[in-house]
Please model this.
Amino acid sequence: MDEQFDLIVVGSGAGALLSAIRAADAGLKPLVVEKSHLIGGTSAISGGAIWIPLNSDMPSSGVADDIERAFLYVKTCAKGMATDDRVLAYVESAKLMTQYLSEIGIPYRCMPQYADYYPDVPGALPGGRTMDPVDFDGDNLGIKALEDVRPTNPGQLIFGRMQMNAFEARIMLAREPQAKWMLLRIMLRYAFDFRWRLRSKRDRRLTGGQALIAGLYAAIRKRNIPVWLNCPLKSLTIDRNDGDRVSGVIVEREGRLLPLLAKCAVVLGAGGFERNQSMREQYLPSPTQSGWTATPPSCNTGDAILAGAAIGAQLHLMSHTWGAPTLEVPKEEKYRAVFVERSLPGCMVVNQLGKRFLNESGPYPEFQQAMFEEHHKNRGAIPAWIVFDADFRANNPMGPLIPSSVAPDHKLPKDWLGTVYWKGETLEDLASQIGIAPTGLVASARRMTEFAVSGKDLEFDRGGNCFDRYYGDPTLKNPNLGPIAKGPFYAMKLFPGDIGTKGGLLTDLNARVLNVTGQPIGGLYCIGNNSASVMGPAYPGAGSTLGPAMTFAYRAVAHMTGKSIALERTDLLEA
Model:
């Protein structure tokens, strides 16, 4: 007889784990099946941020929000590619989900100065909607269980060892007055944590996505919810005698196919398809390479999307990604996304003509899209080059390069020169090494230096809004503009990577999967990057992936247990 559970959850990212926890708290018997040997998926290597309008931490931070403004902002960003009732469901329920997270031991706090990504879009706020997880003590999970959690990215660690949260990262990158003392405190805390360091290579203090997934996994273990690792989904099963309702899954476990029955429902939360080259070539803009993504290898290969499509689920937004520029670092398992370094003053991004073609400090999805647009104009922006001078190199990180004041060039691996970074005594020398037009590069650097003096970027208005300025240097006339004038000069390759695809199975306001005629498929729910994003083609703010993943997980369990969360402001749908 097939093994039976009330709910089968496919995947172990934030949305998937929350589905199982919420189901257990509602009296169901859930099972989590995970394709890889580690828990957490892309969520574990993320910053852990969630984008939550009207969150409960806003008032104490002096931030005001309202449902009309939040709904207008997301609706405008979605550009008609997500239904209004689904948008409303998100902006109304996100705060409820966050309260539930706090109840199960995963509190969040709002970031009052972290602006929405599109400050000029109606309904945007200059801060407060993005929330960062409170640090989590790894001892509360235990070292043995922590080894099951996918480790964070090297770029999110100080000296490859110590974790930092989003507030600390911003203070250090902006070189605020307390930055040195903060770094010293972090180092001393880590150095004196002898007993933990003798038992584990990981920092006991977990932040970002590590704090989120460790907290969720602790809640999973507290409820004795089974998690089967190395257990990929092979297909969904259908009960033809019950209106073609999804009745379970077939997984591969220990080398054999195993049918599993789900008496209540199946939740698909297995990520997107960015690691599937054939699907990328079928759906995404070209050129496209699975190696450019910053997500874990062997994960997010679209298995659950294909399984849903095989039973008639409707696909949506398949040509879109959560874009981000990435760069390659030898011996690292995946490319690194360049989120914040490009905002720091004293660097610029150029094409093969040596010319700038975008606002380097803008949102990372728009950055990636600008690379494709420029490349298709035959001006060569794939790869693009991020260029900076000796002063920038001395004081700022860039990908795997920590400031040369700490780690000078002669301490870097010798084989990185000419592969990870290029170096020239003059801009002309640098241009010849990387194969771009020297006259264009020299002219671009001269203009950037002039813009730094005047405080105004006359080409792309870099630093012209509150989002740009968040990771800048507040002591400068324009926090994002610095001269590029002092040799030697450096360059690094950037690719149009991503942190996931955003197309997948189309769902309704309760995360039910819809078929090709727009009707719900019984017993099947889908969340996270496994589903088509509620944000449409846009990225409204930091946390626009994890926030909806967990919010629609919260709504899905409410629906499947007969306690659907009704929309309150239906009048907004009629406007």
